[in-house]
Amino acid sequence: MANKPQKVCFVTIGATAPFDTLLSNVLDSDFLEALKTHEYTKLLIQYGKEGRAIFDTFIQNAPPESPARYGLVIQGFGFRQEGLLQEMRSTQSNKALDTVEGMILSHAGSGSIMEALRIGVPLVVVPNPALQGNHQEELAKEIENNGWAVAGQLNRLADSVQKAESLRSLSRIWPPKDSVGSRHKRGLAGVVEDELGFLD
After folding, report:
1. Of the given ranges (67-71, 96-100, 109-113, 196-200), which has the lowest mean pLDDT?
2. Of 79, 140, 85, residue with least CA distance to 110
3. Are 2 and 82 in contact (CB under 8 A)?
4. What is the spatial distance between Cα 102 and Cα 59, in angstroms, rounded to a whole number?
5. pLDDT of 123-178, one tens digit each?
6. CA dihedral 63, 64, 67, 70 (to 10 degrees)
7. Which domain holds residue 16?
């Protein structure tokens, strides 16, 4: 029996403000089971400056063949000076690497959101309620209202996996039929790059 293609969920907690609640939620059985249900094979987590203890405790309590991992390869790291582009790109479909399109789940920092939108895979954005003000929640709701991403909620992240799969289906028919011009040929990712002046 052939191995199924790799399908990656990449999670970024952020590099500055701690977001231990998000880390605990992505290691929760409900979220891991939802990933398995939707045929994910790998969970890659950037756990930030203060999340290592939570991640290490999970790894100790759930060794590689443990049922608590729901068949997922689970890996993590703290901080990468060079950024997260390589990890985000691991969620893209690549026939040569036998990968199918996965998803990115991100804290609601604007820099991470913009970088993730460029990748062109389903994005779930989770605001940090511990931060002052509600600007992250407003940003998450706004990008969800525009159909660019899913606004995730702590303690309901399993629901976000299904919503991300629905967003994937909708993105296949984006942009709307009445839009014109070749600038949309790469879908939303192309528009983000055009608007922000990104060049590869």
Report:
1. 196-200
2. 140
3. no
4. 22
5. 999 998 877 666 788 888 889 988 899 999 998 999 999 999 999 988 776 555 44
6. 130
7. 6-196
Buried-exposed string 75-103: b where 16+ CB fall within 10 A, e elsewhere: ebeeeeeeebeebbebbbeeeeeebbbbb
For residue 177, CA distances in Å to 52, 84, 99 come to 46, 33, 29
Reduced to 3 states (helix: H, G, I; strand: E, B; else coil), residue 107 is strand
pTM of the predicted model, to two decimals?
A: 0.84
Residue count (the chain) = 200
The CATH number that applies at residue 58 is 3.40.50.2000
Is beta strand 123-126 parallel, antiparallel or unpaired with respect to 42-46?
unpaired
Q: Which two tokens stand for residue 128?
A: 């940090």
Q: Is residue 99 part of a domain?
A: yes
Burial of 158-188, coded b for 16+ CB within 10 Å and e otherwise, reads: bbbbebbbebeeebeeebeeeeeeeeeeeeb
Q: Residue 113 carries which side chain, given as an amino acid letter? A: I
174 part of a folded domain: yes
Number of domains in the chain: 1
Q: How many CB atoms lie within 10 A of CB 4?
A: 10
Residue 30 lies in a domain: yes
